Structures are given as structure tokens and as C-alpha cells.
Amino acid sequence: MYFNIRRNLPVWLSVFAGIALWEIAGHLTSPAFLVPFSETLVRLWQLTVHGEFLTQLLDSAELFCTGFILALIVGAPLGLLFARVRVLRVGVEPYIMLLYATPMVALIPFILSLMGFGFAPKVLVVFLFTVFPVLYNTVEGARSIKPEMIEVAKSFRSGEWALWREVMLPYTLPYMMTGVRQAIGRALVGMIAAEFFLSSTGLGQLIMGASQDFDTAGVFASIFVIGILGVGLTRLGLMIEQHFARWRQ
Asked: Does residue 169 form part of some domain?
């Protein structure tokens, strides 16, 4: 316990220093620009008590989870397939790199004109923000498998399914989880962008409504929760990655 406290002490000191700086800056600047951390927490409590915040949070969580899970279901298997079938990988790799580097916000007007408003186009936006980090890192992880490992597995008469299950998937999983960690932040950005530019729901609607009402505390309360969710989910992804990467140590 003592060791853990000492190891995490710089992190906690940094957090408390950031909160103190936020509080001081909030008192020294105009409320229209920045509010103190304490006022942000009070506003968050008010929104929670009124029930508005929880409803919007659940709407955003549904959108995030749907798009994120679909991206994992599509990105991870395709990454393994592209790494295993070289001809297929060579054919699609330029498109993967192009779409990975493309700012997905620019595609939202096209998605709107094609699919209109509703839940499905917002899921598509989150999916597009999320799938390419998972796909790209999975491909790179599978490509880094040493050919000798494949040859040894084949020498023991391992079939194609056994090769995927016992060699490719265990070796690629840490790389895949790195892509998942990168995708978490992109998925949150995609979630808010979809709620801004498509039908206004969830935390995006809460931020837009608070901005229009000049409720700076409400804006920062929503952003604060999004940041906490991002850090927490990224930390969870890191723990899962470290768990599956222990064999490499």
C-alpha cells in the first residue's frame, strides 16, 4: 500500500495542482470565459439532481457503446484477415491509411445528406472515428509476427483456425488493445461531433444548450464528465493491454 501511494504520488499532486490552478483562474477571469472548479461541481450536482444530466449521459453512453462495439467487431477481425492474406492487404492498405488520416468531421455533412437525422447516422459517425485505429494497429501487430513462429506451428500440423487461435490472436492482442486505447478518445470526439451536427441529443445537446444560455458552468460540467470518462476508459484499456501483454515481459 505504501509503495502504491509513493508510486502514484506525482499523479495525485499533478491532479490537485491542476484543480487548484483551475479554481484560482476561475476567480480571476470573467464568468463568461471560465468558472471555478467548485462552481462547476455545484452545477454538475444541480444537473444530476434534476435528472437532466443522467438522461443525457445515458443517451450518449448508448451511442458511444453501439459505435465502439461495432468498430471492434469489424476492425479486429479485418485486421487479422488483412495481415494473413497479403494480396488483400496490399490492395486495401492505401485506403486504410487514407481514411485513417482523413478528418472524419468532414464526412458528417455527407452522412447527413445520405442518411438524414436519427440514431443510425450518429452510430456511423462514431464507428468511422473508431474503427481505423483498431484496424491499423491490428494489421501492424499481425504483420510483426515472426515467420519462424508460423513455420513452427505448421510443422506441428496446425490448421488455419489453430494458427489464428494459438499464434496470431495471442501475439496480436496487445497491439489490438493499443488501437482500442487510441480509439476511445476518437470515439468520444465522434460521439460529441455526431450529437452536435446531427440530431442534438446526449451530452452534446447539453453542451449546446448551456452555451446558448451562457451557462458556462454547465458547459464545463459536461466537458469535465467527458474528460473523466475518457481518462477512466483509457486507463481500463491500458490495464487490459498490460494483462494480455504479460507473456511478452
From this structure: no
Residue 61 cell numbers, joined: 453512453
204 domain residue, yes or no: yes
Q: Tell me the residue range of the domain where 44 lies.
A: 40-144+174-248
Amino acid at 49: V
What DSSP designation does 168 have? I
Reported as a single tens digit per residue, the pLDDT across 130-158 is: 998 898 888 887 777 777 677 777 676 66
With CA atoms as reference, report the closest residue to 68 among 147, 217, 186, 159: 186
Picking from 44, 58, 48, 59, the residue whose alpha carbon sits closest to that of residue 215 is 44
pTM value > 0.85: no
- The CATH number for 195's domain is 1.10.3720.10
CA dihedral 156, 160, 166, 170 (to 10 degrees): 140
Asked if residue 177 lies in contact with residue 92, where contact means CB atoms within 8 angstroms, the answer is: no
Nearest to 135 by CA among 186, 87, 206: 186
